[in-house]
């Protein structure tokens, strides 16, 4: 107990020069609170016979407590899941041009709703409208919080109190609470299902049209595919049916792309320009899926319909801030030079990486990863694997990739490893698959940082 008396008090510790950088950085309140907890723990342990740590040790445990408390769940991580556009991991990575534009917009005032030519009130959509029209061939465009919002406001504006016809093969759930029938209900649009799960014909749409019909909704079935004995009505034919009946065709593309992805070695996804050219009156798509920008939802199409959407009071509730508008404008400008897109848009760059390049990377780093993990009883080998685009795009077409396959000796070893990886200062996320933890290296850019991160795994639950 004499020893306990030698333990410094909270006040003494706070006054110690070694503590002042902590106070400077995290604030007196936080340091005092954590210090009290550390000292209380030491006292409790001393009563059961544990030796009192010295000043340096006390400071070290204080620091690690404070750092742990301060760290964010939103910290950067290594996405080695093999899903490039992972919704739970924030989807697209922005281009440097977009990041710089967002930072400028954050730091300074900007003419968000001011026309600098006339000095009069401007519109926030104006920063994107021309670019969107140029890149899609549409007459007009508007932007909202995300594509779910785009679908909601578009449906609610043109279909409220009336009917919308949808094929039974396209009544999708995108995840969480976004199910097409529920969105329809929220938009106060009556859903009229036509056709069957696998086959819907032009006559199914034709027969369902009545005076109450406001629109036909076509949904890009982006997160699954119906194969075999199937039939769907092509967009151009649907546009024809809608035009003849005097109703609108709304095409929800989901992960709409602005360029033909086959030039990057990926499978074909319909482009927004094609959907517009086919005659859709409105096309909706996401900003942070294949387009590679920040979260946003776009509606492009007929001027009169876009004007009605802009007058909907919901538009104000769903609007986008200057930071995202700045980042999005910079992203869209990159599409003016498609030849350099894959260089400048990280998401496309990662999607376009070739398997042999990734395989060479896996062979390069396997020894270093093995050095860290074999001492804990794990085996590491290189492997071939398959990446996915994610966020619903091209769900069935995987992209050949390569990575590391980690196996453990005992039951539960892999879960333990996955948890330790998640606990790292820069977490590593892989995917558990067929008795192994697979790290798909398609999205690994910072190799040195990765090895450095892994080497800390022993301090994070893998002792
Ligand atoms: C992803 C998706 C949406 C929802 O878009 P968010 O940007 O996630 O709001 C809507 N429709 C389709 C077809 C989609 O693929």
Can you put this structure into words, describing what you see?
With 463 residues, the protein is an alpha/beta fold. The chain folds into three domains: 2-70, no CATH class; 78-88 and 352-459, Alpha-Beta Complex (Aspartate Aminotransferase, domain 1); 96-344, Aspartate Aminotransferase, domain 2, CATH 3.40.640. The protein is built from 20 helices and 15 strands. The strands form four sheets. It has a seven-stranded mixed beta sheet, with helices on both faces. A four-stranded antiparallel beta sheet has the order 11-12-15-14. Helix 3 (20-26) crosses helix 4, helix 4 (28-47) packs across helix 5 (55-70) and helix 8 (147-159) crosses helix 13.
Overview in brief:
With 463 residues, the chain is an alpha/beta fold.
Describe this protein with a few key phrases:
463 residues; alpha/beta; Aspartate Aminotransferase, domain 1; Aspartate Aminotransferase, domain 2; 3 domains; seven-stranded mixed beta sheet; 20 helices; 15 strands; 42% helix; binds pyridoxal-5'-phosphate
Strand order of the largest sheet: 2-10-9-8-7-3-6
Radius of gyration: 28 Å
The N- to C-terminal Cα distance equals 32 Å
> How many domains?
3
- Briefly note the CATH topology name of the largest domain: Aspartate Aminotransferase, domain 2
